[in-house]
Structures are given as structure tokens and as C-alpha cells.
Amino acid sequence: GENVEQHPSTLSVQEGDSAVIKCTYSDSASNYFPWYKQELGKRPQLIIDIRSNVGEKKDQRIAVTLNKTAKHFSLHITETQPEDSAVYFCAASLYNDYKLSFGAGTTVTVRA
Amino acid sequence: GAGVSQSPSNKVTEKGKDVELRCDPISGHTALYWYRQSLGQGLEFLIYFQGNSAPDKSGLPSDRFSAERTGGSVSTLTIQRTQQEDSAVYLCASSDPSRQGNEQFFGPGTRLTVL
């Protein structure tokens, strides 16, 4: 099955700086890569996703890039704010197989 | 509209007892997923239901775990003869696969503690 690795496990950034989280996946057939944000004590929520026919996608301060050849994708958060502090999970799924394989998560702390 | 709901929110049980966890998906969502999240860990896939198809049970960790989905809506995850290592938050999610992106909407989870 699909194996997703996520780095780093923890990330501390100064408010206003950028944060980058990287994930690799094992199955070259995977074609859907969502990112979920889980605030403390709350449920995971989708923040952005990308399909394998696209190399980059942006939504305000967050962006995701995908390198299919290298089988890795990254989340970029610019101009970080305290409300960006949370655990972020990357995930991957195979074409027509909707179950997601999640990375272990990255705990992001934005220092004021 | 209402989101995914789960009950109970917390469950404390003794080792060896059976437990049932319930999930009410978003109305109209044909896909339903169960995940397990251990303390400080990622989300571990357990089982997936899609419409009338046979469920994908490939993530169930042992035969003590089972799940059913009645009438294509409510789902129950059953853990028999619970063990301490079953302690975790059990998350349910639902989605509408006909929509591009197939975003999964999560419930608040059930925190299971096995003493």
C-alpha cells in the first residue's frame, strides 16, 4: 500500500516568516494529495489539495507544490500568523481509491 | 447543514469489554471512513464504505475490529475484547466522491480509553 512520510515532525517559526512542510509518497500511481489542518482539540479540516496533473496551487497565504518525478509534495505557508499554529497532515490517495494514506503530521508553532 | 457527528465523545472501558462507536455522516455522502489517531500520531486508516460496494477493510488491525453501515448512512465501529493498545481517538469522516476533490469531512472523534 501507499506509504507517506512527512518532515519535519515539529516546526517553530517567527510570526511573519514562512513555514515549509515536505512529504514523500511511495506509489507512483497516487494522484490526489490533500493537506489537513488540525487545531488543538479539534477535528482535521482540509486546507488545500492538489491533483497530479498540476504542479502548483495557491490559496492566499498557502501553496502546495508537487514533483511527480521525485514523488514528493510540499506545503508552503507565507507570512505566518499565530492562528496558523496547528498540526498539519499531508495525505495521498490512488486513482479511484478514495481512502487516504496520511503522513505522521507536523506540529507548527508560530511565535509572536 | 449538520456536519459529521460521532457518539459517544468519550468512552472509558475495562480491558476485555466490547465497545461500539457510532458515526452519523453528512446527509447525501455516500463514502464513509474510519480512522484511528493515537496520541501524537497521524491518522491510521481503518475501513472505508462506498455506496453499496463491499467495504475496504484493509486497515483493520485485527479481527477484534469490525464495522457496519446500515442503510448507507449511520456506521458503527465495534471493538471486541478491548486491549489497552486500542486506546486512541477514533475519527469518522464522510465524503461525496462525485464531487471533484472528494474532500473528507471529519467528525469530532470518540476518545476511547481502555483501562
Provide a compact summary of the structure.
The complex is a heterodimer of chains A (112) and B (115). With 112 residues, chain A is mostly beta strands. Chain A is built from no helices and eleven strands.
Structure description:
The complex is a heterodimer of chains A (about 110) and B (about 120). Chain A is built from no helices and eleven strands. Chain A has about 110 residues and is an all-beta fold. In chain A, strands 2, 4, 5, 9, 10 and 11 form a six-stranded mixed sheet that branches. Chain A has a five-stranded antiparallel sheet with strand order 1-3-8-7-6, with no helix packed on it. In chain A, strand 6 and strand 7 (about 60-65) form a beta hairpin. Chain B is mainly β. In chain B, strands 2, 4, 5, 8, 9 and 10 form a six-stranded mixed sheet that branches. A four-stranded antiparallel sheet of chain B has the order 1-3-7-6, with no helix packed on it. Chain B is globular. The model of chain B has no long low-confidence stretch (mean pLDDT about 90). The interface of A and B includes residues 45, 98 and 101 of A.
Order of helices and strands of chain B: EEEEEEEEEE
| Helix content range of chain A | under 10%
Beta-strand percentage range of chain A = over 45%
Distance between the termini of chain A: 41 Å
Helix content of chain B: under 10%
Ranges of chain A where pLDDT stays below 50 over 5 or more residues in a row are none
Structure keywords:
heterodimer; A: 112 residues; mainly beta; 6-stranded mixed sheet; 5-stranded antiparallel sheet; globular; B: 115 residues; 4-stranded antiparallel sheet
Layout of SSEs?
The complex is a heterodimer of chains A (about 110) and B (about 120).
Chain A (H helix, E strand, L loop, with lengths): L3 E4 L2 E5 L4 E7 L4 E9 L6 E7 L4 E4 L2 E6 L4 E6 L8 E9 L6 E2 L3 E6 L1
Parallel strand pairs in A: 2-11
Antiparallel strand pairs in A: 1-3, 3-8, 4-5, 4-9, 6-7, 7-8, 9-10, 9-11
Chain B lengths: L4 E3 L2 E4 L5 E6 L6 E7 L5 E8 L14 E5 L5 E5 L8 E8 L9 E2 L3 E5 L1
Parallel strand pairs in B: 2-10
Antiparallel strand pairs in B: 1-3, 3-7, 4-5, 4-8, 6-7, 8-9, 8-10
